[in-house]
Amino acid sequence: MFRRIRTTLxxxxxxxxxxxxxxxxxxxxxxxxxxxxxxxxDTTAYSLHRRxxxxxxxxxxxxxxxxxxxxxxxxxxxxxxxxxDVAPNLExxxxxxxxxxxxxxxxxxxLTGTIEQPGGTKVRYFFTPVALASSVRINSDVSTHFxxxxxxxDGDADSQAEGTAIExxxxxxxxxxxxxxxxxxxRVVAFTFTVRWVPYVSDLVxxxxxxxxxxxxxAQIQGDLSDLRNAFAVIPGFVFSWDRANIxxxxxxxxxxxDGFFLVVPGDVISNISPEFDVFVRx
Length: 283
Prior knowledge:
Helices cover 11% and strands 59% of the residues. It is mainly beta and 283 residues long.
């Protein structure tokens, strides 16, 4: 079943990409954003210009000044609503250098929330992602983008079950690298090829306290996350841009990198499919 879905997605991406690329070579009056000044924002060093906005399925962004944008991811809010608790998140991205063919950016953000389980168990989490990115314009049609992101994850949980109180704190750190090649086939169509890799993930460290009345027990437990080390994804895709509407579509192989939560889902969970999809408008 998963193999059939994967094949279908690949065929759809190929057909849509080739068809749209062909259409894009015809003259068009569309005010597309594949121009010298208007650039891709995701997986690049570029940010929105002052008073410009990007509203999409996956994220909402606004340009405070030309070198600084603020973003919130929609998925944590939606999942937070499902678990009956909001998941506030915010990211600031600054393109602090943009001259001739080179652009550099830095970003910092946070994500926090609470998951409540039946029986009085609460799990609280706090993610702190920090990223650096660079973009190099090789010529008017081809660009390359490179980046590194470090994510520190802190969490705590408490449970009251059958007269026993359990409290614990969790710490996990991981590092992600990415690279993307961008080829502008026309003002409407751009082809992208993205590679993501996780070279480092720390062990999960849990410090727990169990209060069963008397005595109180303390313990430190380490979880093995070696399955996530060297996680990677190879994703070919297309970005289609019209007057204001934009579509990003890609289907890749191996692990799934979950934007907004900055986490990695092992490939065998979703049959080694790594999708990339967003619909958004810019104005």
